[in-house]
Amino acid sequence: VWCATIGVGPTASVRSSSPHRTPFTGARQQGGRLQIMSQLALGGRVLHRLSFHSWRGAFARRCFSNDGKPFDKILVANRGEIACRVMRTCREMGIKTVAIYSDADQQALHTRMADEAVRVGPAPATESYLVMDSVLEAIDSTGAQAL
User: Which ranges of the sequence are coiled-coil (predicted)?
Assistant: First the structure.
């Protein structure tokens, strides 16, 4: 899960609940603090890769909205059955979804299930889904808070 937070820079750190535990994927223990290593800058936001166990603690609280949901809108960068399952779960949780699609997938089920859909390029995956600038632009234009 990628979670967007505001005001967290590339050297942001949080205290670990245990000196022996590193709850963040790609994080490194440094003097009782965790330094986030896996980040993508997007305008004024920074996207952090979180592991399942990292939903605890101070950093995780920044990712949750006032209603207890981890985020309000998620961009699903998968297609097919996996994307449909993620979108179905998000709908049950009250989270809006954004699908990305290539020309070949314009009428695909995952595109129709999503609350919003954004074209990221022509049919070949190397010219659409794998072009990170297109995916980041889709995140920015839709206001998705997670990927």
Answer: none
List, as one string, the DSSP characters of 43-81.
TTEEEEE--GGGGSHHHHHHHS-TTS-S-SEEEE---HH
Distance CA 102, CA 122 (A): 5
pTM of the model: 0.56
Domains of the chain, start order? 2-63 (no CATH), 73-142 (3.40.50.20)
Cβ neighbours, 10 Å, residue 146: 21
Q: Average the pLDDT over 81-110 and give the result.
A: 95
The phi-psi region of residue 69 (left if phi > 0; otherwise alpha if psi is between -120 and 50; otherwise beta) is beta
Residue 91 neighbours by CB under 8 Å, 6+ apart: 97
Distant-in-sequence, close-in-space partners of 58: CB < 8 Å, separation ≥ 6: 14, 15
